[in-house]
Amino acid sequence: MKQIYTTTLRLNLADEDDRRAYEHLQQMNKKQYRSYSKAIVTAINDYFERQERLENDPYLETREKEDAFLRRVTEAIEQGLRFAPVGMLTVMPPAAVEALSAEDDENISAALDFADSF
User: Fold this and answer.
1) For 18, which of 4, 5, 11, 84 could close a Cys bridge (C-beta 3.0–4.6 Å)?
2) Which top-level group of life is the source organism from (predicted)?
């Protein structure tokens, strides 16, 4: 059996997907991918392995999106905390947090009672 198989890749630059693929190949990191063949092999393998994972786990894409969203939220909070004044980063004792929760519950109840009065 032949160890090396040669094929032709034809890209139609009038087609948006083909043009984007061509641009990726032109701009690829030459240290990471020493040839078009290596980049194309990696892309094909990644694509079909992902399709297999999606077939086996139909919620994979949803979980990946949720994880990405949570990472962005976490990064935004961490970045916000880096710039927060030192005095704002005080830790409240649990008793104070419980008192705030009780106050909030009372305020919410009062607001709902007021809204129901209409």
Assistant:
1) 11
2) Bacteria
